[in-house]
Amino acid sequence: MPTRSVCLALALSLVGALSAHAEILTGATDPACQAAAAYSDARRGAEILVLKDGRPICETYAAEGAPDHAMELWSGTKSFSGLLAAAAVQDGLLTLDEPVAKTLPEWRDDPRKAKATIRHLLSLTVGIRSAIGRPPEYADAIRMPLEADPGQVFIYGPAPYQVFGEVMKRKLAAAGQPADPYLYLKRRVLDPIGVGEMVWRRTP
Q: What pTM did the predictor assign?
């Protein structure tokens, strides 16, 4: 993997958190870091971390945020799904524009679902409506109807990512690997970038 500049930014919004001015540990004299901290403060953000060539260039904490304090990412996990997909493309497990029905035969006989691609799932343009904060089980997600043709409308919610989880599960099994998307993510992404202890909640 090339050692070019890498930028990682996590801004966590705390529901009900008290507004607090961020303490800037790194980058206090950098106007861009100051602007990021002000933006985060205005939205009750907890943490900002920007890395360049593996070193922090902007690091701030506010409210409950702290370098050694684990916090829930909630929908921040969607970003990890994108990294999971990128790794799977690199490994030849899938392509972003392949039909979901290539892996899920349950989708082949539905005219709308048959047109859906993995890219539609990941961009939330597949047409599935689901309750925010209540991700369905994989099996339930793949049975959910499409309310619009894929690519026509953006609908925010967790179900498309759960469908992608089932796609990854089957892709991994077909490739003779453990059929657990989290274990693949851990091996391909989390361990190489040095993510330490974490709790990965599977379902509600």
A: 0.78
Same domain, 84 and 155: yes
* 132-189 residue pLDDT tens: 888 999 999 999 999 999 999 999 999 999 999 999 999 999 999 999 999 999 999 9
Together in a domain, 49 and 101: no
The domain of 30 spans 1-71
Query: Does a structural domain hold residue 114?
Result: yes
Work out the angle between the directed axes of helices 159-174 and 77-90 (0-180°, nearest 10). 30
User: Which residue intervals of 43-178 are DSSP H helices?
Assistant: 77-90, 118-122, 138-143, 159-174
Question: Could you give the count of Cα atoms lying within 13 Å of 55 in the half-sphere of its Cβ?
Answer: 4
The rounded distance, in Å, linking the Cα atoms of 107 and 101 is 5
- Do 126 and 180 have their domain in common? yes
Quote the number of domains for the chain: 2
- What is the spatial distance between Cα 38 and Cα 124, in angstroms, rounded to a whole number? 30
